[in-house]
Structure formats: C-alpha cells, structure tokens
Write a structure and sequence with these properties.
Elements lengths: L1 E4 L10 H13 L3 E8 H4 L8 H19 L4 E6 L1 H10 L5 E5 L4 H16 L4 E4 L21 H11 L46 H10 L12 H6 L4 H8 L4 H19 L21 H9 L5 H13 L4 H14 L4 H11 L5 H12 L14 H8 L4 H6 L15 H21 L1
Parallel strand pairs: 1-2, 1-4, 2-3, 4-5
Helix pairs in contact: 4-5, 6-10, 10-15, 12-13, 13-15, 14-15
Bound molecules: flavin-adenine dinucleotide (FAD).
Length: 437
C-alpha cells in the first residue's frame, strides 16, 4: 500500500504527488491509500470553535471522500499528532511508501523532516514533490544562489525560467485504490471539537471577463474585479497550474499576482524567522504604541475611517478582504495607529479564510515598510484619499458600514495629519537608532 498524504492539495485532479503515487503503485502492482491528518498541534491553537478554515477543510474532505467512494475507495481522516500517526503507519508492514506535496512553512519543514526519518528508518521511500507553487523557493535565485529581495528582478527571472511544460497537468488520480477499511470512520466537526459555521465559498472558476478586465478593475473593492480564488489556492482545491494556464502569458497582471505568491513562499523559506522578526532588522527598533483601545476599534471596524472600517467588517463577517483594502487597513494599523504589524498579522491569521503564513507576513511586512520590496516608510496611505480613488461612490463602504454618513458613524479615532507626522518621526527615530548600533 502506498500512502498519499493530503495537506495543501485537497483535490484528486492534477495533483502531482497523488498522480505520482498512482503511477508508482501501478508499476509495483500495489494500491494507493489517501490520508488526511487533522493536526492536533495546529487545531489546539485555534480559539474559535466555529473556525471557518476547519469547516472549509472538513467540507472539502467530505467531497474527496465522496469522489473516492464513487471509485470504490476511502479517505482515511484522522485526528492527532502527525508524528504519532506516521510512526504507526511507517511500522505497518503493508505500507510501502509515502507520497506528499511539499509545504514550505517552517513548522511543516520540521514536521516533514521527522516524518521522512520515520520512513527512512524502516527502509521505506518518502517522495515529496512540487505542487503548491509554480516555481519553488530554490528554483528562482540570483546568480550567486542567494534569494531575491526585490520583486521585479525576481519576476523577470521567474518568467525566464518557467518552462512551458511547467504548467502541464498531471494525470487525474484513478487508483489503483486500496479497499475501504472499517477501522477508519470519518470524524464530524464536533468530534474534532469544532462546530458548523456559515461559509460563503467562492467558485473555483475564474470568470473570463474578470481575467480580461483584471488590470483595470482589480483595485476597486466595490466591483467583482478579482478572482476570489485565494482560499482555493491556499488549500489546493484548485490547481495552481490549471489557473496559470488560463492566464499565462496573455494576462500578465494576473500572472504577476501569482508570482507574488511564489515570491512570498520563497521569502518565508529563506527567512523562516520573518513571521516574528522584521526582514530589515532596523525596523525592529521602532517604538510602537501600546493603545489597546485603538487596536479594539481597528479590529471591530470602528475607527471612523470608512474604508478601513468596511474592510475590517468584511473580514469579520466573511473571512475575506479585498487586496487594496488589506493594504489600506494594514497601513492604517502600522502608521496611523503606530501599532506593531505583528498584532495585525495575528488578527488576520485568526480571521482570514485564505490565511497563508507566507502571503500574510509578506503583506504585513510590506505595509509596515520592514519587508522585501516594501513600501518606503514615508509613503503613508491617506485612507480618505484611498477611498476617494478606489471607492468614490462608496459602493463598498456602504455595503459593510450601513451607518456611514449618519450621526451614528464614529468620529475618527486619530487625526490623519497628527498620525502621519508621528509615524514619520517614530520610524525615522527607530531607523537612526538602529544605524548607530
Ligand atoms: C496585509 C496583507 C495580508 C495578506 N494576507 C494574505 C493571506 O493570508 N493569504 C493570501 O492568500 N493572500 C494574502 N494577501 C494577498 C492578497 O490580498 C490576497 O491574495 C487577495 O486579496 C486574494 O483575493 P483574490 O483571490 O481575489 O486575488 P486576485 O487578485 O484574484 O489574485 C489571484 C491570486 O494571486 C495571489 N495573490 C494576489 N495578490 C497577492 C499578494 N499581494 N501576495 C501574495 N499573493 C497574492 C492569491 O493567491 C490570489 O488568489 C495579503 C495581502 C496583504 C496586503
């Protein structure tokens, strides 16, 4: 029996590791068994019993289970520590090998190294392959083999290296499958300690008119101008290759966003400390404010700045926020409120359905000025001008802030001019302090 371990690749079609496991099993006269582990180390950190990510994964696993059942197979879904489960499976004489797609997060790297060791001790192969990204962190490097810190040359090199066959689909998984085992029953959300919640799952398809007009519409949160595919790319319910095939090379602006995704995966892999530390170390010398009331107002969408409030309320209600608005609320937190970007990143991590450590940290460090190719610290978004530019008719704002324009809407919690000057002063102070060290 050959195990395929689902992680960020919740689909049977165009799945590199699963397709390879099927091929390997066919050649050896063996069978494939699909597995998924609800990792207790991760789940125990989630505070909300109605966590949307858990509900999303659970629903997608049910879909896979249904698709496998139609082919006479079964998905083993278990709960616990992956090391404990893999110790058991690696010792099972009927298990011959393990296949999985690579995951570039620091926790996953350590976990997978330990798992590989378990199978190696039993003389069983573990095969890890590329699936989650189009170009892996080690594939696009500078001539001296160091990582790019600036996006434009990275993207240029990325485009020069991506071979046309790099977007080809892997054959859909059709077995041969192991027969179902009564030893494994599909857990309910309640068995996992969670509860059902309302989930608005976007389509897995990108409408062709969105792709065609993406360049002009993507910055306007009141329009349906972006693909809304982030959750599917995060959990692999849509193959990144199939999406890139629809866009590459004609829809360059859209392809560039997919390259940003690879770029941040690359940065996280090469700078595994970046979820906690500024990529540009000098930025860790900024004196942040410690105003819990301001933080609470930001979280609740009650800052008195309509675009910021609309974004935060959209996030709280749906688990999604438009990219332009993510940039505005992140800039507002770090510059106007002068609160540590890590607070904002943690709040997004708890709320976003598409939460992805690499893109989230990348986005937050970009906004705070401390990241790779970040906005210079002195370029401070004016949230009112951003609304004037990107939501002039207040279509987006009115959707999420119904009391906008009435007397019940809060007054601004900080004055823009004062906040801007304070941010400039504190950033300058922190950076000059760092330069003396
Ligand atoms: C502060 C901040 C935090 C963010 N946190 C996350 C996160 O946790 N998870 C996440 O997937 N994205 C994150 N982003 C990036 C971006 O906002 C979302 O990917 C995008 O809004 C998702 O909407 P969409 O699918 O309609 O995007 P589209 O505009 O249709 O883009 C297509 C795909 O490209 C990728 N993409 C687009 N923009 C970016 C970007 N700037 N960086 C990396 N990938 C990008 C996404 O996978 C997206 O689905 C963050 C951005 C900021 C500024």
């Amino acid at each position: 029996m050959v195990l395929h371990w689902f992680r960020r690749d919740l689909r049977l079609e165009d799945n590199h590791a699963l397709s390879s496991a099927c091929q390997y099993s066919k050649e050896r006269g063996s069978h494939v068994q699909c597995i998924f582990i609800f990792d207790s180390n991760i789940l125990s950190e989630l505070e909300n019993p109605r966590d949307r990510r858990v509900a999303f994964i659970h629903a997608e696993l049910q879909r896979i289970q249904f698709e496998l059942a139609q082919q006479g197979a079964q998905l083993w879904v278990v709960y616990g520590d992956p090391i404990v489960w893999h110790t058991r499976w690696s010792e099972d004489p009927s298990v011959e090998a393990l296949y999985a797609n690579r995951d570039y997060e620091p926790y996953a790297g350590l976990r997978d190294t330990s798992v590989a060791q378990l199978y190696a001790e039993k003389g069983k192969p573990c095969k890890w392959v590329k699936d989650h990204v189009l170009m892996e962190p080690h594939e696009v490097l500078k001539e001296d083999r160091t990582p790019y810190l600036v996006f434009t040359p990275y993207a240029r090199k990325w485009k020069s290296l991506l071979p046309p066959e790099g977007l080809a689909a892997f054959p859909d998984a059709k077995g041969p499958w192991s027969p179902p085992s009564p030893a494994y029953t599909f857990p309910s959300l309640e068995d996992l300690g969670f509860q059902a919640c309302s989930l608005a799952i976007p389509s897995r398809e990108i409408p062709m008119d969105v792709l065609a007009h993406y360049k002009e519409t993507r910055d306007f949160p009141g329009e349906a101008g972006t693909s809304r595919l982030s959750v599917h790319l995060r959990f692999g319910t849509r193959s990144i290759r199939s999406l890139a095939r629809s866009a590459y090379p004609t829809h360059e602006t859209y392809v560039n966003e997919l390259i940003w995704r690879d770029f941040y995966q690359m940065i996280l892999k090469h700078f595994p400390q970046c979820p906690d530390k500024a990529i540009k170390p000098a930025y860790d010398h900024i004196r942040w404010e410690n105003n819990t009331e301001h933080f609470a107002s930001w979280c609740q969408g009650e800052t008195g700045y309509p675009l910021v409030d609309a974004g935060m309320r959209e996030l709280n209600e749906t688990g999604f926020m438009h990219n332009r608005v993510r940039m505005v609320v992140a800039s507002f937190l770090t510059k106007h409120l002068l609160l540590d970007w890590r607070l904002g990143a943690a709040y997004f991590a708890a709320k976003l359905l598409d939460f992805d450590l690499a893109s989230n940290v990348g986005g937050w460090q970009w906004a705070s000025g401390s990241g790779c190719d970040a906005a210079p610290y002195f370029r401070i978004f004016n949230p009112s001008s951003q609304m004037e530019r990107f939501d002039k008719a207040a279509v987006y704002v009115k959707k999420w802030v119904p009391e906008y324009g009435t007397s019940t809407y809060p007054v601004p919690i900080v004055d823009h001019k004062m906040a801007r000057e304070r941010a400039l002063f504190r950033y300058k102070e922190g950076l000059s302090f760092a330069s003396l060290m």
